[in-house]
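Continuing from the previous page...

OK, I double-checked the sequence for RNA polymerase sigma-70 region 2 domain-containing protein against my notes and this is the correct one:
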Amino acid sequence: MTFMTTVPKNRIISDTELARAAAAGDRAALAAIYNRYASPLHAYCVGMLRDRHAASDCVQEVFCIATTELPKLRNADKLRPWLYAIARRNALRALSDRRREAACDELPDDAATGPGPFTLTAQNELRQLIAQAAGGLSERDRHVLELAYRHGVTGIELAQALGISHDSTKKLLQRLRDTVERSLGALLVARRAPQNGCPQLAADLSGWDQQFTVLMRKRIARHIESCSTCDEYRRSALNAVAMLGGGVLDKL
Ligand SMILES: [Zn+2]
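Thanks. Re-ran it with the corrected sequence; updated structure tokens here:
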């Protein structure tokens, strides 16, 4: 499994070039940074956390932060140590959270050494995320998502399954893709509300049971429209998810 990127593979591009381009908003450069560092950062986080899933969370977080903070990186040639520093900070925080939660829980021995490439874990994470975001969709959209995304029914087959024309199916999928993206955006913002520096949303969501519904999606989406902090986070989080999924949403 490889990640999609438009950066040509036959030319070695320096970290410095990538960092500058990504800081200027070049998504392909961001994806290239991800391709270059997601796996080593994941291995690094596994080493600290001894847990592949926690490490995946950590790496996702690193790229969310990196996407937002890259423009502030003064020395573009320091990309590599900078990414590792973010990873280290995140892993340390995850460790202290874990210690607080369960001081004497034994960790399974195979957690750190189990097989399976990083991408597999990342795709699992994304699948769970999309499953949760699906809670913010209408019943019909959810049904189409289930067919197209989970069962891989697409094209003419999907049109037949839905009993509509191929053209209508294409339009439906286009709309669904937008809705899923909006729903994912709202979910990602909501999940990070307490840490995100938006006191208003954090207050709105205090006591939220993590159930993501159509009503929640609309409430959060309305807030994002009027809040630049949350909107900026939504953008970078979606970028990170798009990279994590390796174009999985595009397959819809
Ligand atoms: Zn906000």
